[in-house]
Design a protein that fits this description.
The chain is of the alpha/beta class and 452 residues long. It is built from 24 helices and seven strands. The strands form two sheets. A five-stranded parallel sheet has the order 2-3-4-1-5, with helices on both faces. Strand 6 and strand 7 form a beta hairpin. Helix 8 packs antiparallel against helix 12. The longest helix has 22 residues, at 199-220. The relative contact order is 0.14.
């Protein structure tokens, strides 16, 4: 990742570079992080910290962390990682780098977990119990029909960060299996079916190794409670896959002897199956609330504190008077973001490019309108025609439908969720600008005035 400049941007080019959508980490986290918990009206991050604080050494918990894609979860998780590295050996993972994000299976997490823990132990100069390793390797060879030769011939030591000359057979086999799962639908299905035939043995052997790892970790580093694994980017899993994973295999996801944070799509919370029955309360990162809530009015007034706070994400990175003709243009971007962090950054970058292309010294009103329109057009390209009447009802009722359509609208962020004293939904503001939405809203209002 490119380190962001220390000083705030004073040119359109550096403003474009600084307003990227990547999560903050390292020195940039200290430099540019803005605490949004007050205007999100949530204690999600604080409550995760409390769970980790209450956790006793040698005990394990499963934590669900959710919110819209692009709402800033990854940055918050990076902050959690930084804050808890003193008490846990933290392993932060982007799931899309490890497996097929569009077709994730619960056994993938078993393989990824033991692969990463074994690698972390080698990095720390620690060794897992050789008898446990031999038993696990023997079982794996038997069920997968893999041999030392077949694995060596297909795994590139140089191409995989978790390998090295000292890597055991198990590490190389896990790398091979996960590569096959990520790259081939046929092999993926075969591997999962093979592992699920004896899932009790797989789970038992992994947990024996995990417990051995924690025991040796804590012996060498008494300050550590154990391993904390953060599975980020799971919010990118399609709704149908997420429903299958977090409802049908909820128990299996909680049976590893390890403290795990799963990021889950916000859409699964709008299922009638009730996620809380399986995992307890999820920790929700809602939108930054830029509105004055009014359930009886489709067109909401703005909350100035919320607007100023979401705008401060840009102000922390750029010199506003050097980049914008006036701060009003920044506030227009803030309004069009709906409190969505990534959407704000995307429109900011578009405005920088547009202003520079038009040879403007600063971003003006015309550049802002263009950037907002481009975001609007992007939504118009993928929103099905049948969704607009539902979007109009969401605007009028402030509530999402508990069905596949409602889940999809949360997933694609055409509808946003806000939280606090009230939980409510509202259409993405760029969607509200669409002519199709305006027509659907007129029809909905007429229908409510003149019911059959």
């Amino acid at each position: 990742m490119t380190t962001l400049p220390i000083n705030r941007a004073t040119t359109l080019k550096t403003a474009y570079q600084l307003c990227n959508v990547e999560p903050l980490e390292g020195a940039d986290l200290d430099r540019y992080y803005v605490n949004l918990s007050g205007v999100r009206k949530t204690t999600a991050i604080a409550s995760v910290n409390t769970r980790l604080d209450f956790q006793e050494a040698g005990k394990y918990t499963t934590i669900l962390f959710t919110g819209h894609r692009g709402c800033g979860k990854s940055t918050e998780l990076k902050l959690i990682q930084k804050e808890w590295e003193k008490d846990y050996r933290v392993i932060y993972l982007e799931v899309n780098e490890e497996t097929d994000i569009n077709d994730v299976g619960y056994t993938d997490f078993y393989l990824i977990t033991i692969k990463q823990v074994e690698f972390e132990m080698r990095r720390l100069g620690l060794k897992l119990d050789p008898r446990l390793m031999e038993n696990f390797e023997a079982w794996f060879k038997d069920v997968t029909q893999e041999t030392e030769r077949s694995v060596e011939s297909s795994v590139s030591v140089e191409g995989e960060v978790t390998l090295g000359p000292e890597a055991p057979f198990l590490a190389k086999l896990l790398v091979k299996l996960l590569a096959q799962i990520k790259g081939s639908d046929k092999q993926k299905k075969t591997i999962r079916q093979t592992l699920e035939k004896d899932i009790s043995r797989l789970k038992a052997d992994i947990n024996l190794l995990l417990n051995d790892a924690v025991k040796k970790l804590r012996k060498k580093f008494p300050r550590y409670k154990g391993f904390l694994i953060i599975f980020d980017n799971l919010d990118r899993v399609p709704p149908e896959v997420a429903n299958h994973l977090f409802f049908d295999y909820a128990a299996q996801l909680q049976q590893l002897d390890c403290t795990i944070v799963y990021t889950v799509p916000l859409s699964v919370l709008s299922s009638t199956k009730n996620l809380n029955n399986n995992f307890g309360n999820p920790h929700i990162v809602p939108m930054v609330n830029i509105y004055e809530f009014n359930r009886d009015d489709c067109d909401l007034n703005y909350n100035q504190t919320g607007l100023d706070t979401i705008a401060s994400l840009i102000e922390r990175r750029v010199e506003v008077d050097k980049i914008f003709e006036s701060r009003e243009q920044l506030l227009e971007l803030a309004k069009a973001s709906g409190g969505h962090v990534r959407q704000l950054m995307q429109m900011m970058q578009t405005a920088c490019l547009t202003a520079s292309t038009n040879e403007h010294d600063k971003i003006n009103a015309e550049d802002v309108i263009y950037a907002i329109k481009q975001e609007q057009f992007n939504f118009e390209r993928f929103i099905p025609q049948s969704h607009y009447p539902v979007l109009a009802e969401v605007c009028l009722t402030k509530n999402i439908t508990k069905d596949d359509v409602g889940q999809l609208m949360l997933f694609n962020t055409s509808v946003l969720e806000y939280n606090g004293k009230n939980r409510w939904n509202y259409p993405n503001p760029v969607v509200k600008q669409s002519e199709e939405f305006k027509k659907a809203l007129r029809d909905a209002r007429e229908s409510n005035v003149n019911p059959e």
